[in-house]
Amino acid sequence: MRQRDQQLGSNRRAATAALIVAGMAAVVLAKLVELQVVRHEYYAERGRRQHLREFRLPALRGELLARDSYPLAISIRTESAVVNPQQIRDPEFFARVVAPALGLKPEELSGPLMTKKQAGGPGASFHIVARHLTPEQRERLRPLQKTFPIHFVPDARRDYPNGVTGAHVVGAIDAEGDGNAGVEQKLNEELKGRDGLIQVLAGSRQDRFITWTKRDSLPGVNVTLSIDRVIQHDAERFLREGIEQAGAESGTVVVMDPRNGEILALANYPTFDPRREKPTPAEAAARHSNIAVQIPCEPGSVMKMITVTMGIDTGLFRPESLIYCENGAFPRPGRRAIHDVHRYGTLDLSQVLIKSSNIGVVKVSLAAGPQRLYEYLKKFGIGDRTGIELPAESRGILRPQACRGPQDRNCWSPTSHEYIAFGHEVSATAVQLARAVAVIANGGLLVQPHLVIGKSRPTPEGREIPIKVEQEPPRRVLRPETAITIRRIMERVVLEGTGKAAAIPGYSSGGKTGSAEIFENGRWLNRHNASFIGFAPVANPRVVVVVTLNRTPKLGGASAAPVFRKVAETALRVLHVPMDRPETEPETKPQAPQKAQALLASAEKTEPREEAPPPATPALVGPRVPDFRGRPLVAVLREAASLGLPVETLGRGVAREQSPPPGTVLAPGMRVQVRFGL
């Protein structure tokens, strides 16, 4: 009996153990089914992510080129160091070890790492330790990869070989590689291309074993601009000098070819350096303040050009038509009289523009009527965007002439056309004014100002596939004989009137001054938006130049006209325009005989000195000059930028000569001169 009970107990224990084992097996089987069947893809993906990593391969951003194909903006392949903050156990220790290798302070690394590590969530698993590593930084970081999960990822750096020249045209990019000013921003989608994707197979210590490309990057479009580098450089220099001499706060210069609307130079002041990744507050404000296209101002007497043109083109007036200018004060019913600076009696229409008579142009506007004046303002492009390839272009201010009802305040009042006739109640940008004066310079055609004159897509084989650039064709808005008549009158403005300081040695020129007094906080200030618009030469204008100096105590004839003269002279010389007037040479004063004899006597008494032996040349420390010979211009600039070598280029084509020769240690302050030839 006892033996049977023992047997039954053993059987029960065996059955219980079997049940437990079967249950455990069932749990294991269920887990295996979950791992291998139900959630197979999830765990397989986690396994792949531990050993297989994907990195973005930045596309090379398209190049921006000047009209002579000189690079204004290029991209250079670089590498950046990144980490996953969640994998850094002690950010402070990491920073103390890694920061010296990068030339940084430990707190510069530990702070952002701690913030991301504690924050968690999207974006907390990726942190850029250093961008655009130098070869030395990379070599110092490589041994640390065995201790810390530091990865090198492909990157690209934007370089601007022309520096600050043309900054507001070219623009700049942000930390993400997108354009945030100038053409870089306006054509960002075309320039940035399409990023590629590379995959890396790594071990448990994140050592890379195999790397392959999953998707090739597509480079951006190369864009050729109409900017002439010499004209642009001088326009910026003369604008800066003019602002300093006039006591102005800001200003702009636009140089345009009136025949086709190509912008040869566009300069603003203050300006900025597009090479600076972290701009100062002043530079950040200048980067987003492209005065020439974004900030309109009252044109003042410049608008009289359009009013007088309207009078002649409609047949209401002839250049010799007489207008009584009321001896300087024109009474108006129920409001203040309109005044001239000088007390003029009777002037013909040509002299109204030459003498810049407010009263004279008001009488022209009264004779034509508001509707006709509005039509001519629109013919000259006032109140419409030009379509130039720059961001945030302003259309200026030109209210509709007709009111939609008695409560409509956004329209002309019954007296608006009197004041708009001489530049009040209307505003325009410098580019709009350049288009307006081009109508007179090119014989009556409204052209579209533009910067882009060519596009091409680079191929992996090194070829360039041209892309057609569409431009709006010129549109006739004025009779040719009217334009020629106004050109002759505007020439007399320079010869006889308010624009004498705009006369260009060796060339005929025409133009019009403008001085719009600033009204601020309920009172008129002794400050003006001084301007000068003009063209040269008169018979066949090749350039249109618009100069605006903001908030200056001087008038346009004294402040803006001299800047016009200097900029136009440079442009005509660069474009090889033949002179159409004799150039007066300054007389050379002969040296006084007494002074010459004194200098000769002192020279005879001077005894030759023994030359001191040259000091011993210390051992040079610096980068070695690579061999640039046989390479195209862009390749030379890219390698020089990646090595941090200052380089000066001469000519076009392929590098033929260089100084100093390859292998030379470049001393601090020296630069490499490379000569190119076809």
What does this entry show, briefly?
The protein has 21 helices and 26 strands. The chain has 678 residues and is of the alpha+beta class.
Protein described:
With 678 residues, this protein is of the alpha+beta class. The protein folds into three domains: 54-225, Penicillin-binding protein 2a (Domain 2) (Alpha-Beta Complex), CATH 3.90.1310.10; 233-574, Beta-lactamase (3-Layer(aba) Sandwich), CATH 3.40.710; 620-678, 2-Layer Sandwich (Trypsin Inhibitor V, Chain A). Strand 6 (172-173) and strand 7 (179-181) form a beta hairpin.
The overall pLDDT, averaged over residues, is: 87
Our Rg estimate from Cα atoms comes to 36 Å
Low-pLDDT parts are 585-618
The total domain count is: 3
Terminal CA distance reads 116 Å
Tally of helical segments: 21
Helix fraction, binned, reads: 25-40%
